[in-house]
Amino acid sequence: MHRKLGFRQGIFVGKYLCALAGTLHLVGCGAGQSAPQDTLGVQVNTSPGGGEEHSNSLKKEKVAVAQPKSVQQPEGLGSPVAEGNPTQGKSFTLPGLGMEMIWIQPGTFQMGSPEDEEERIDNEVQHLVEITRGFWLGKFEVTEGEYREIMNERPSSLTHVVGKFPVETVTWIMAVKFCAILTKRERDAKRLSASYEYGLPTEAQWEYACRAGTTTARYTEDLSEIAWFSENTNTVHEVGKKRPNAWGLHDMLGNVWELCTDWHGPYPEGPVKDPKGPDIGEFCIIRGGGWRGARAKECRAAYRRWISPAMSFNALGFRLCLRPVAETGK
Fold it and tell me: Domain 88-325: which topology?
């Protein structure tokens, strides 16, 4: 079932999502709030190859890596992952789909950007965040084939002959429904207990995993080594063709923007544990930048954008997260 919503009708999203048979506990179901002063700076384009060219050049920077013991990943991160029931501390592959899920250890990090970071914007207020419980995150962005296997439809607007391309032209509503159906499928197959669920990552989980222990704007010196963005491509690419970060995650920056579960809102000014964003909202967070509408300055670990949950475009996708149900706070 799909419900068509107007651009500013976020107030109805909670009612729609609560109809998903209780299979997913969502962050941010509720009435709308006043619109923020910034929205996604790209136009919806459903034609193939509709990229934009930008002239500003890339700037290399030295990457500082800070990996305290609390955020060390398990040894053998790059080894083949086990197929079957998820076990904390171990990566695994979803049976029947082949989706690789990487275990992310709990830990503490500085979310946002320092005031002297180049091309920083004011909504990136730096604050200490503690991730108290580990979770799993997709090694790659969800692909067209994986989405079609679960949803029996292909929303992507770009034409691909073969290959593992990320699904795009999906809304937040569609991504959440995908996660709910997958959760039910895995529980029905007795591969997932009621204490775990698939969903979108929180904004804090996303940035924590993107940084992978680094403290600078990006997790490498040369952005072109890790990301497809508007300065080095004019179309989407297969997942996993760029170098991963230190925790084995590919395309955390670039290729397609990635939806988060949070509603848009200002950051707290002090230390927090497992933040989930506002309880209500009208716009949802997207992260990472993409092949279209993202220059180098948008492809930073701290960069934030937001979009209506009923809106999509051909550089918007998502990444799967698995976590304890209690973490959603609903």
Answer: paralog of FGE (formylglycine-generating enzyme) (3.90.1580)
pLDDT band at 13 (very low <50, low <70, confident <90, very high): very low
Label each residue of the chain as H, E or C: CCCCCCCCCHHHHHHHHCCCCCCCCCCCCCCCCCCCCCCCCCCCCCCCCCCCCCCCCCCCCCCCECCCHHHCCCCCCCCCCEECCCCCCCCEECCCCCCEEEEECCEEEEECECCCCCCCCCCCECEEEEECCCEEEECCCCEHHHHHHHHCCCCCCCCCCCCCCECCCCCHHHHHHHHHHHHHHHHHCCCCCCCEEEECCCHHHHHHHHHCCECCCCCCCCHHHCCCCCCCCCCCCCCCCCCCCCCCCCCCCCCCEEEEEEECCCCCCCCEECCCCCCCCCCEEEECCCCCCCCHHHCCCCCEEEECCCCCCCCEECCCEEEEHHHHCC
Q: pLDDT: is 146 or 80 the higher one?
A: 146
Neighbours of 258 (CB within 10 A): 27
Q: Which of 8-12, 274-278, 294-298 has the lowest mean pLDDT?
A: 8-12
